[in-house]
Amino acid sequence: MGNRPHSFTKVLGGLQPEQPLYLPLSGIIPTEYIFSPSAASSSAPASPSSNSSTPAYTTITAPIYEFPPGIISTLGSSIASVNASNFTDAATFTQYIDENYASIPIGGVSFDLAAGSSILAQSGIEYYVQPRYINGSLSLTTKHLAFWNGWSPFVQLWLFSPAFLALYVAKERESSVKTMQLSNGLNPVGLWLGHLLFDSIPTFIMATLVVILFAVLTDKFFGLGILWLILVLHGITGTLLAYCMTLVVVSPLSAFAATAAYQIIMFMLYLAGYLLTYTYANPAYANGMVKAIHFTLSFLSPVASVTRAGIVSVNLFSLLCDGGDSEHVSSSTMIGIDHYGGPILYLILQSIALFTLLFWVDSGSVLFQRLRRAHEELTAPEPELPFKEDIDLEAAAASSPNNLLQVLDATKRYGTNTAVDRLSFGVAPGTVFCMVGPNGAGKTTSINMMSGNIVPDRGDVLINKASIVKDLWKARISLGVCPQFSAIDAQLSVREHLTIYSRLKGLNGQELDSSIDSLLVTTGLHLYSDRLAGKLSGGNQRKLSLATALIGNPPVILIDEFSTGIDAKIKREMWQLLRTVATSKAFVITTHSMEEAAALATKVGILAVRLLAVGTTEGLSSRYATYEVHFTSRTTEDIACAERLVATIPGARMVDDLATRFEVPTASVPLAELFHTLALQEDFPEYTIEKATLESMFLKVIRENNVQEEDRRAHHVRHWWSGLFRRLVKLL
Ligand SMILES: Nc1ncnc2c1ncn2[C@@H]1O[C@H](COP(=O)(O)OP(=O)(O)OP(=O)(O)O)[C@@H](O)[C@H]1O
């Protein structure tokens, strides 16, 4: 009998001689199997309680076996008339049950007071059809219950612990580290496997400890080796579920809470499903219903599978008992689909599905990209943009195969607010393209479209000829991205940062070491290589971001707001660094600083939702070529005098923002003549003449195009779910 499943149950632990039998048995054995009021004495109550929800009873005429004789009748007057069949000694009772368990209709009880053990033989759930067998001693049962009650809070806490892993991953997503990793071409498979391997270490340790504890403290578990496997699989699946939750829930705490709440709710539903079914359902169908509940909820949550495994492991609800003739619970029986096999299969399939989902989202499958691609109205033809020679020429040349980066008619809207409208340009090797624009002009949105972090609603971006919409993963291999806010992991040192990114990019051995050393020296970070990234100054954090973007020598580098908030000295160091590495790459830099654009750019695009002007710095200079004349005018009389003077110079006009500054088109007045005119005016001893800067060109373009401030543009942002719903409808 040692190989037979033993059950732990409160039935025996709670059994008191004077209690009616149905009370302690309720919840484990549906009372209708045990006892029928119509078969009981007339003084018996009609039900265990006056509660109207108590199930109806069925007449039972089959015998209940007992030892010592008459023991059942002592359990209470309500069952005194049950048809009891007695045995003269405990050994005969045990032997009879052992040999005939498969055909015993109801079961029996044996209290061997001399030996201090007791046996409850319980009939199967399916009345008269599939009898089941339970064997347990009172002392062991009580011990086991005490053990389980003592440890179950810890085990449950551990079962839900993968939810904590959402914290770190969500933090990485929130601080753009994940975006930085992915947009810098890191392989999502390597990335997530790395996370999973690291996060699975506690799972392995805890599963092993739990199983060792179970083995040492009690003999009531069946198939502990298989249970260990299921605990590990559950840890892995729960971890992947937590990772997936961060795809939809942004804040770390919310992601943790959502994962934990989901698992706990599914756990409660699962248990409630079992208990309610076995208590209230028609017994003939109860097993089938529990199976349906199990296989449905297990499909939705890994916690259902591990709970099932826990129930199977202690043969609760006699789940390990198949009836029939099988004497032993063999390994092959235990891995049947109704026992451990179901949880194993479901957990493996769920792990694969969740991992695929992460990979699918992060590598940007075509289907997912299409789902994210918004608004049906963008498929309709847009009105023609006003003709601008430079913009049209740039758009026509953007798709030239010489360009490492091709932005082709890219448009992005948030609700009714168009952030970027039909942006087209190309960047050839060795070019630094500076995108300048006022606040809210769409610079960051453009960078995000180029890096694949957001999908253009219309148009495409090709990185080294790979489409960011159709082949995001391939496109990102050629990409290095330095986002607006340095996305660094504060807990890692500078060298560790570079090492991790290099490894994830596939570098190793000598190649990895020499590449990191060279990057450290190039960026000047070798002085801080062992310092935690969180302890670096803002300028050095920026350098670290740039160094990260340069790992693996990608041909296209995107930098959002390169030197914003950095002091003048480090800013110049970074410019120098960029000039050093820019030789054969295509760089796109967004900046507010015209000084920076003038210092770095070989090509400039002025952006305010649309591209307003584009060209090489020399081309733009010649197109908007003016001299600027600054007078030192201290009084309103001086200003009036300056205005009268400028009125005599052909084409000259006051610059809007400063009453003392005037611009004179170079084409209308030669420089020498301008000096001569001004020299004749003795009213102005102090004035300067300079060629117009990029800044004045920028202001001129903004003025000419009547660009409004961001806050004055109407923003009607729809909720993401309404957009997603419309996209789903459209896809279907
Ligand atoms: N996630 C978003 N949801 C809704 N609107 C957004 C979102 N991101 C940007 N926008 C809007 O898109 C427009 C362009 O924003 P973007 O951040 O690209 O401009 P920017 O030129 O980078 O501005 P800044 O120079 O101030 O960083 C703005 O009107 C902004 O409000």
UniProtKB/TrEMBL annotation:
<feature type="transmembrane region" description="Helical">
    <location>
        <begin position="260"/>
        <end position="281"/>
    </location>
</feature>
<comment type="similarity">
    <text>Belongs to the ABC transporter superfamily. ABCA family.</text>
</comment>
<keyword id="KW-0812">Transmembrane</keyword>
<keyword id="KW-0472">Membrane</keyword>
<keyword id="KW-0547">Nucleotide-binding</keyword>
<keyword id="KW-0813">Transport</keyword>
<dbReference type="InterPro" id="IPR003439">
    <property type="entry name" value="ABC_transporter-like_ATP-bd"/>
</dbReference>
<feature type="transmembrane region" description="Helical">
    <location>
        <begin position="145"/>
        <end position="169"/>
    </location>
</feature>
<dbReference type="GO" id="GO:0016887">
    <property type="term" value="F:ATP hydrolysis activity"/>
</dbReference>
<dbReference type="Pfam" id="PF12698">
    <property type="entry name" value="ABC2_membrane_3"/>
</dbReference>
<dbReference type="GO" id="GO:0005524">
    <property type="term" value="F:ATP binding"/>
</dbReference>
<protein>
    <submittedName>
        <fullName>ABC transporter A family member 2</fullName>
    </submittedName>
</protein>
<feature type="domain" description="ABC transporter">
    <location>
        <begin position="405"/>
        <end position="633"/>
    </location>
</feature>
<dbReference type="InterPro" id="IPR017871">
    <property type="entry name" value="ABC_transporter-like_CS"/>
</dbReference>
<feature type="transmembrane region" description="Helical">
    <location>
        <begin position="340"/>
        <end position="361"/>
    </location>
</feature>
<keyword id="KW-0677">Repeat</keyword>
<feature type="transmembrane region" description="Helical">
    <location>
        <begin position="189"/>
        <end position="217"/>
    </location>
</feature>
<keyword id="KW-1133">Transmembrane helix</keyword>
<dbReference type="InterPro" id="IPR013525">
    <property type="entry name" value="ABC2_TM"/>
</dbReference>
<feature type="transmembrane region" description="Helical">
    <location>
        <begin position="224"/>
        <end position="248"/>
    </location>
</feature>
<dbReference type="InterPro" id="IPR003593">
    <property type="entry name" value="AAA+_ATPase"/>
</dbReference>
<dbReference type="GO" id="GO:0005319">
    <property type="term" value="F:lipid transporter activity"/>
</dbReference>
<dbReference type="GO" id="GO:0016020">
    <property type="term" value="C:membrane"/>
</dbReference>
<keyword id="KW-0067">ATP-binding</keyword>
<dbReference type="InterPro" id="IPR026082">
    <property type="entry name" value="ABCA"/>
</dbReference>
<dbReference type="InterPro" id="IPR027417">
    <property type="entry name" value="P-loop_NTPase"/>
</dbReference>
<dbReference type="Pfam" id="PF00005">
    <property type="entry name" value="ABC_tran"/>
</dbReference>
<dbReference type="GO" id="GO:0140359">
    <property type="term" value="F:ABC-type transporter activity"/>
</dbReference>
